[in-house]
Amino acid sequence: MLYPFFSKPQQSSSVPQPTVSQPLPDFGSLDVPARKAEFFAYLRPIVAVVSSDVDEERAFVLESKARIAAGKGLTGAQRARVAALADRYDLDVEGDTPMETVLAHLAQRVDTIPTSLVLVQAATESGWGTSRFAVEANNLFGQRCYDTGCGLAPAGRTNPKFRVKAFASVEDSVRSYVHNINTHSHYVEFRRVRSAQRERGEPLGSIALAATLGQYSERRLAYVSDIKALIAQTGLAPHD
User: Fold this and answer.
1) I need a labelling partner for 91 at 20 to 30 A (CA). Which of 8, 162, 176, 184 fits?
2) Where are the alpha helices (DSSP H) in 70-205?
3) 214: which DSSP letter?
4) Which residues contact 26 (CB under 8 A, 6 or more apart)?
5) In sequence order, what are the beta bridge partners of 163?
6) Residue 98 and residue 94: Cα distance in Å, rounded?
7) For the chain, which residues make up each domain, given as ranges?
8) pLDDT tens-digit profile of 174-225?
């Protein structure tokens, strides 16, 4: 069955918009054990809010897949929401793309990231919330931007090839990180492994998923090893 997309709506009230989270605390004033504990305690509820929004979107995608599989159509409002999600998750959708295909691709992209993996990457990339980019730009994940004058320039570099994104809130930074993992071509394998875990009925495993993140850092396999080790060292649950 074909569902022409024609034009995509500019905005849908069913798609959650970022909200402002609490300001980043002064983690640098704490000793190391307290800093680590407080960083996780601060970030965990923000991750939960973002994950809850993604879960709601995913439930809609899976329900829509089930309707199509059962031979039922989608309403105009439901088709419009699918189109909005395809746009939001950077799917290149042609006008005659079968709805089954669109939803299958969305099912791989519209999904959460294990909390333990989010927390550990944030800790690693931001120095437990103490880096310049975390403090000045609410950027906990080292996300870059390339437009002239965007974000913050790395210290000590003249005419840098990239800058570091600035966010209005830490929650915006978390949302951007999740969107990056769920859409960027570097993380196709991450999404494939996550989808396979879902198909087997398993909880999402942060260790297996961390193994796919070699392109997140120029350190490649060394970075992956550090992320895996930190998940174990901090005692975080390896599954969601």
Assistant:
1) 162
2) 76-88, 99-109, 115-126, 132-137, 170-183, 188-199
3) G
4) none
5) 145
6) 9
7) 29-109
8) 999 999 999 999 999 999 999 999 999 999 999 999 999 999 999 999 999 9
